[in-house]
Every structure is written in structure tokens, then in C-alpha cells.
Amino acid sequence: xxxVREWAPAVVVFLLGIAAWEGGTRGLxxxxxxxxxxxxxxxxxxxxxxxxWGAGFFTFKEALGGFVIGxxxxxxxxxxxxxxxxxxxxxxxxxxxxxxxxIIAFAPITNNWxxxxxxxxxMVIAAVLCFFPVLVNMLxxxxxxxxxxxxxMRSYAAGEVEIFRRVRIPNSLPYLFSxxxxxxxxxxxxxxxxxxxxxxxxxxxIQIRRSAGIFAFDEAWAxxxxxxxxxxxxxxxxxxxxxxxxxxxxxxxxxxxx
Amino acid sequence: xxxxTAVVALRNVGKHFGEGGVVALEDIDLDVRPRDFISxxxxxxCGKSTLLRIIAxxxxxTSGDVVVxxxxxxxxxxxxxxxxxxxxxxxxxxxxxxxxxxxxxxxxGWDRKxxxxxxxxxxxxxxxxxxxxxxxxxxxxxMQQRVSIARALSxxxxxxxxxxxxGALDEMTRERxxxxxxxxxxxxxxxxxxxxxxxxEAVFLSTRVVVMSPRPGRIQGIVDVDLPxxxxxxTREQTRYAELIREVRRLLRLGGGLDVEEDHVEETxxxxxxxx
Lengths: 258, 276
What we know:
The complex is a heterodimer of chains A (258) and B (276). Chain A has 258 residues and is mainly alpha-helical. Chain A is 79% helix and 0% strand. Chain B has two domains: 8-81 and 161-273, 3-Layer(aba) Sandwich (Rossmann fold); 92-156, no CATH class. In chain B, the strands form two sheets. In chain B, strands 6-7-8-3-9-10 form a six-stranded mixed beta sheet, with helices on both faces. A four-stranded antiparallel beta sheet of chain B has the order 2-1-4-5. Chain B is globular and about 50 Å long. Chain A binds chain B through residues 85, 143-144, 146-152, 154-158, 162, 166-167, 170, 173, 246, 248-250, 253, 255, 257-258, and chain B through 53, 56, 58, 77-80, 82-84, 86-88, 90, 92-96, 103-104, 107, 135, 137-138, 270-271, 274-276.
């Protein structure tokens, strides 16, 4: 019962949103290029489901590839920079500056580097987008350890590797996971925007661009829905992994740490 | 030095922070004998926490000799000759209470069965049976500090170092834990070096109180606490107890440390040295 009461407001908002969309577009005769009625979009989604989901998974693979490459490199870089603080101190300002670059602007360039049809050209965009937030957060998690925590480990004659294994890495996990969740969104954005600048006809971004170009707005919106569903599922998968690995964390028990 | 080997022997220990910077400690000479309960007390900047960390080999002295358990401090640390308790309990949130206590045993390579047996003994010793599976953040501050003490004693080190362990707790919890600490000290036969900024606590707990003065940190005097063992609530009502408190206070005033409070200055220096 308690669950139902907690979820009820969100469900009501969802249903109202759908009703407003459907009723608004039909009742006010909204032009299709502005916003087609939801039912038209869903019908297209049903009729074209093979093509759309095929395209969705094609682009999702680009996003996932970029996510894995970008996040792995970021985690490795964070470990190196946390271990050798001097190096970290020298590189950190540039990392933060690079984080502020609108990396998406590089999409046309990476298409040239790796080839328009090579999925790697999209993965690189997604990877670079994921890299910096994960690096910055992970590094913060590895280094924001109370000095007494480290002193305790040293009192047990622990070396650097053991301090990383037993203190710094577990301490960084909450930071890492919040960055990974952000990275799922960034990876999807990177892959789709990468598609916009040209690529395989199978790709979702290409589908959206083409549909919009030939005024098939139902199709464009249906493709956007596929992208949204995949994006949400990607995010939820990482959130689930977070729950499973961090059962110990106060937030997992609905408690407030003091 | 007498015939008995000292658990801790400090000779002319000095510590400067930075090139020609703050002199934290100067000319510290101290012997801690087996079964001693030594309190280090003094005002901000007297270097009492620094001195404890020098004994623990967590900070290197600039001059002098530090011998712990008959060997250089570094060797004593590598041999895990001491357990340490800090002001914050330093429990790892990702481990349960039981596994926090087992941590040093894991690092010593004890097998699982032996570890859990000892863990249960320790949990009983600090009266936390039933909380093994709890997470640290589910416990009160006083309970967390008891876990921290259980962890420090789990591998039976001959020496227990405590850096204001009850400083963040309320007065009632502190008094109760003082009693428990004495019971544990009596039961385990360990030697304790205890940093505090509470005069009453120092006198109640210790066999000797080392009064320190600030800038540079020196030993102002050592008060032998000749109160009978075991110490109980009745101890606090004895005339001798009040006299000893007055004596410690006199020495503190003599050293220029009128108000005894937390060592913020010292802590900042330690953090600065540790770096991030």
C-alpha cells in the first residue's frame, strides 16, 4: 500500500501528460511538423518497429562501445593520477579545462579520422564525452579520504597498493557510479549526434535526420522514442549495478548518514 | 632507565614542521613502562597528537630517538606492535561492524574461522554483541568508538595508542566509556598512551599524566596518579583525586596553557603534511 501511495502521484502526472499531448495536438490541430499526436507516433513505432529498433540497437552499440572505452580509460587515468599526485597536480588543470570543451564539436572531425561508416568514429565521440566526468569524479573519490583513514592503514603496515584496494577504491565507488550514470546519457548523446554528421544508413541518428528531412515527422518522433527508451534502460542498468555493488551504502538502506 | 624495558622510550625527540617553520616539539624525553596508562595533556599547539603520531611512526621526528617495544618506531609499526584509535572512529562504511573489527586480522593473513572467533570475542569485550552485521553509520558515536577500540585490540598489540578517542562524545557517554576502557585495560594487560584535553579524564584514567606546554611543545611535568586501582565512580569523590586535578591544572598554568582545548592547529598541520 505504501508503495502504491508513493508512486501514485508520478503515475497520475504521466497519464495527464499523455492525455494533454494527445488531446492538445488533436483538439488544437497542431501542425505535424511541430508535434504529431502521440497515437500516430506509437502507430509508426509499431509498424516500423523492425527498422527502428534495429537502428536503435545499432546506435546503442556505438554508445555502449564509447561508454566502455571512455569509462575504462578514465578509471585507469584516475588511478594513475591519484597514485602519483605530482602528475595529477600537473595535469588536473588541463583535465578540467578539457572537460569544459564542447566535445560534440569534434564529431565531424572524428568522422574524418576513423571513416564515416566506421562505428569507431561515433564511439570516440561517446568515449571522449564520458571520459572527463568519470575521471574527475573518480579522482575525487580516490583522494577525498580522511587522513586518519590512511593513517590507520599505515599503522597496519599497509603499502600503497593495499591502501588503494582497501580504502581509496571502495571510497571512490559512490563517486564513480554517479559519474557512470551521467556517462550513459552522454554516451547516447555522443553516438546520436555522431550519426547526424553522417554514417551508416542503419544508424538511429541518420534515421531521425532523414525522416525529419522528408517531413516524416511520425517516424522521426518514433525514432526519438526508441532512443529515449534505450537511454533510460542504459541508465537503469548502471543504477542497478550500483545497487548491487553498493548494498553497504547508507542510501541503499533508505537511511541518512550522519 | 630502570631495569624494566620500556614499551616506549623517547630521547630528545623534536619536530619542526617545514624549513625553519613551526617548532611542534622540543626535547621530549619519556619512558612508558609496561602496564602504564599514560595521558598526554596540554593546550592547543603543544604537540601531543604529533607526539602520539611520532610514536606510531606516522610522522617522522626531526631529531631524537624513538624506541617502541625495544626496536625503532618504524620496525614496530611494520611488526604491528601497536593498535591505534583516533578521535573519529575511522570505520569503513563498506564493511559491517564485524568485518571492520576483522580488518587488521585479514591484513595479518588470519584464516576466516579464526578471524570470526576473535571478532566475536572482541564484540563481547566492548559489549556490542548482536551488532556484528550492522553498518557503522547505523551506530551511535559512542558505539562506533567502541568498535574502533575492539578493532585496535583485535590482534592483541602490546601497546594501544589513543588520540582523543572520546573527544567528540557527550560527557555521559565519555564517562561510561572511560569505565569500559579501564576494564579492558585491566583485562588485556596492554600499555596505553592516551591523548586528551580533559584534565578530569586524564587523572581518572591514568597511572601517570604527562603535562605538556605549547610553542614549542615540551613536557612541563609528569604527575604520578597514586589513586587506588580499580578506579570507580567513588574515585571521583576522593580528596586525592581533586588534589591531583589541581596539580595538573597548576602545571598547565605554569606552561602557559590556561585553557585546554582541541588541537586545531596541530590537526591542520598534519593534514597539510599528508597532502591530497
